[in-house]
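seq/struct pair 1
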Amino acid sequence: MPITNFDFKEKYQYQNGFGCYFETEAVPGALPIGQNSPQKPPLGLYAEKLSGTAFTAPRHENKQSWLYRILPACTHPPFAPAPAPNESLGLGGEPFRRLRHIPNQLRWDPFDREPDADFVSGLHLLAGAGDPTVKQGCAVYVFAAGRSMAEREAFYSADGELLLVPQEGVLDIRTEMGWLLVRPMEICVIPRGVRYQVRLPAGPARGYALEVFQGRFVLPELGPIGSNGLANARDFQAPVASFDEDCGATASDGPNEYVVTAKFNNALFRTTQRHTPFDVVAWHGNYYPYKYDLGRFNTIGSISFDHPDPSIFTVLSAPSDHPGTSVADFVIFPPRWLVGEDTFRPPWYHRNTMSEFMGLIRGDYDAKKGGKGGFVPGGASLHNVMSGHGPDVDSYEGARNAELKPAKVGEGSCAFMFESSLMLGVTDWGLKTCQKVQETYSEHSWGGVKVHWKGGSA
């Protein structure tokens, strides 16, 4: 079924397409016609350009949007340093300087729910590489929130583009450019600099996040697959304009205070302004947040023999400067049919020049057993550069001896992978403070791997 049946039903309208140039207005006539910055924009609005790439980036890479808002984003008092909400976020570059780079395979039990945290205070840096100040690298987070952000609060990251993967709970995300409802089995991408607020309409939420400091997420090239397949462009959804009107006669004399928090080199800064940041009445451009239903992914695989490379399951990719190599890919392992003849059907044993961080949204993963001490929803694993990994012993023996008839695997399940060309270091929070590392992961998974060798002596 090429669509997820969500328990929490959709409540917003969207514009469909990936990388499109959209225009939307919440009030008719708010968009200027034929130009971007007239002397007096319609309805007394201000024109503000939001640039996601350099002005002179090639046309096919250039990302920008024009926002038509009641007050421009610059109308606030100076930002001041804000206290760190936890020991991995808000401390500037220190967690990156203290990353632990180790070759061991790592797996985590499900991360704790945090009933007193909102999205920002419940966002934990787990692993990363590079430096956001030079726009190089990426970061892996987990988040757990028990309450909505305050009604008059907004957050943005100047560090990179953020991909959110909710595992439980519903995210009702208000952005400057409109609303996104994001449920488990959906993802969303928030571009660098876009201000937003996360509400929890169905109770506590938990999930994973990937931030790329360089470039942006794009659809992978399809090559010989042809013109359709994998994540199709028409299934991505962008918000329509929606705004509040809460301000005074000037930017500094409104009746209410709004707190805007910025993540800047992994440090937090805060300002309080006298008008809502969600006052964009209309916008047009190709730089905007969007979401995608993973149930619409058109899975492609082998119909003869052998398991293909997992790159065939790539939803989004953040390319590096080297063609074919990504800063990070977002890959999923959804329900799919396996029909390979004389084939070991789960993913094979592997050592990889890429780092592989995996999480489980729901169900069971066909190459790892669940249950206590296993790979379960809300948990994660990291197999770093050239660290050997693959099916655990029970999964291997089961697949090795299985009757090879057409079989559908992963029904009711979805695992995912953040794959990066970078060597990922793990934070102190990820290795120690969270207290979720499975110390016996390697022994549990591969300590009992059997010897099937039947050859003679050399």
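seq/struct pair 2
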Amino acid sequence: MLPWKSIIRIQSDSKRAIYLQLADALVQEVMSQRILSGTKLPSSRQLADLLQLNRKTILLAYDELLAQGWTEVIPYKGTFIKRNLPITSPKALGSSPKKLGSRPVNYATQPHQINDGTPDYRIAPIEQLYRTAKSLTKGPLSKSVLTGAHFAGELSLRRSLSSYLHDTRALTASTEELLITRGSQMSIYLALSALLTPGDAVIVGSLNYETANETIRYLGGILHTVDVSTTGLDMGQIEALLHKQPIKAIYISPHHHYPTTVTMPIEQRLKLLELSQKHDFYILEDDYDFDYHYSGSPILPIASIDQGQRVLYIGSFSKILAPSIRIGYMYAHSSIIERCTTIRKLIDRRGDPILEKALSLLIEENEIQRSIKKAVKTYGQRRDIFCDLLAQKFGEKISFSKPDGGMAIWAHFQGIDIKNLIQSSKQIHLDLNVDTYSQSEHCRLGFASMTEAEMTQNIDLLYRAAIPLYK
């Protein structure tokens, strides 16, 4: 039997739940190949005795590993690490990577709006954030936040963010590996600017966040698209492209693919990491809505299992607070962060240190975490109501799958071009503020920012706008 008590260490002072720490530890042991694929795990009772933990804690950890796709249960035999996980050995990049050559916000001008997935600022701690920021301009910290050099972001926020990412995403980021930005779009631009030279190839989904595509083209990158299935980007097509030519990077949103909301399973995430090491490319992981998951715990980011420093991880507090509060971040190898910081100085030398310091205080006081917990409960209820109302109103004229997280659904309006639906909605004073795609009958419909009463009114208007368009 493996020395479980020696290889699994629980930090009693960590804010991350013990069962999640246990799951994280087992994942790291699998990734390092100290626990091999096909290994049978001890029974929950055995492991509880060995680790001096409650058996319910062990069961929760095993449920978490099963939900994330790391284990399988064989009836009458027990719980096993999956046999076909594509685990690879760590491959260091050396002292630095080899030499490398926010989403737009539209505001409603009409009283009724359906957007493509934004938070409800009315339930976010915005007043407290700005009250804290105001107090900083007069207190003992005022000189530091008003006159200091904060090229990579206010230091206290990077420290708070380091702990926050560890507790929520199992990321082990130092302050030198973090860059605070003005939203995820700035992070995407800086990351791609650091990675790309004109002519470099980048793989994206055939359905993708269009502003990321535009950024890649603007920087001289060549887009190569692969199909998007119910499990994310098509791995077979990715491998075929990798065998044809060098690829510099892959842009991906595996937690909830944008725009289709599908989740990439753990097997494909591990395969993508394996391919990144074998074919020497970077993974730009845009994790824009990790905090919103309504069915158990979310699968941890690819960056949390990256041992070869291939992943550039991007997140944002704009999806927690409000679209116009632009605070995002990037986690990557320190040499990449240094390069991004240098580029960032050309367009924004100081960021917003007062707001960043205020946010760090809200994180340290657990106010942000409490707000997220409240939002998850509220948005989960709104998702259910929204899906029920759409199904009741449109019937077979619309199809969609209820997402397990996020703030929007991916809807197919049978026989209706979304561009025409947007115009028809304007005629009855409904602002259908959504993007259009190559699949012209599909769009994202956001539910998080509407109350039940607002949903009822807006879906009724949407149906009225759609009726004349059905073929």
